[in-house]
Amino acid sequence: MKILTQLIALSIGSAQAATVIGLNADSANSTGNAFGGTIEKTLNDPFAYDPASPNSPLPNRIYNSGSIGYHANLAEGVDAIISYTTASIIATSASEPVVVVDLYGRVDNACCNDRDDDIDVQLFNGSFSSPIASVTGISLDNSGDGWGRAIFDTLPEGTTFDRIRIIGHDSGGGANNNYFTLLETRAATIAAVPEPSSLGLLALGATALLLRRKE
Fold first, then answer.
1. Count of structural domains, the chain
2. Which terminus of the chain has fewer CB atoms gathered within 10 Å of its CB, N or C?
3. What is the pLDDT of residues 10-36, one digit of tens each?
4. How far apart are CA 174 and CA 125, in angstroms?
C-alpha cells in the first residue's frame, strides 16, 4: 500500500504545477473608475496567491472607498471593462495547458450582492481587437468568499496571449447604474487536474504493480 499511496500522491502533486502570470493594469483600454477605485488597486493586495488553492488564503474583500479595488459607476446597461497586459507573452505548454483567471469581489454585504453576477473573461494576443478565447457567465459569491474563477482548459498546446480583459455586465443589484466592483485579479497557467476516473485508473494500475512485485 505504501507504493500505491506514493504513486497517487505523486500524480496529485504533479497536477498542481503552476506558474503565476504577472499582470499590468491597462487603464487606457478600460472603462473609468469611481469612488476612488483604480485598476492598479486590483493587483496590489499582498496575499499569498496560490493557483492550486485560490480561495485560501484570500485577499481583503471588504470594500473601502479609495483604498482597494475597482468600482464602476456607469450608465444602466453599460458594461464595465477591466483590461490587463501580461508581463511577458504567455504560452500554454504540455506541462501547464490550462489558464485560470481568479477574481475576488466584495463581501461586505452593504448592498447589491447580485451586481457582480454576470462576468466574462477574455484572452487576447497582440491587441484587444478579437479574443482568442472567452469564458462567460462567471458569478462572484458576494455573500460567501467573494471568489470566482475562469478556466480555459481547451486551449491548444502553444497557444499564446499577452492580454486579459474582464467584462462586468450590468446584472442589476437594485441600482440604476452599473456599479460593478472587482477587488483583486490573479492569473496562472496550471497543470490539468486528473478527473476522479483517472485517479481510479491510476489506483488500479498501482495496485497491479504492487501485486506483481509481490509475486
1. 1
2. C
3. 344 444 689 999 999 999 999 999 988
4. 36
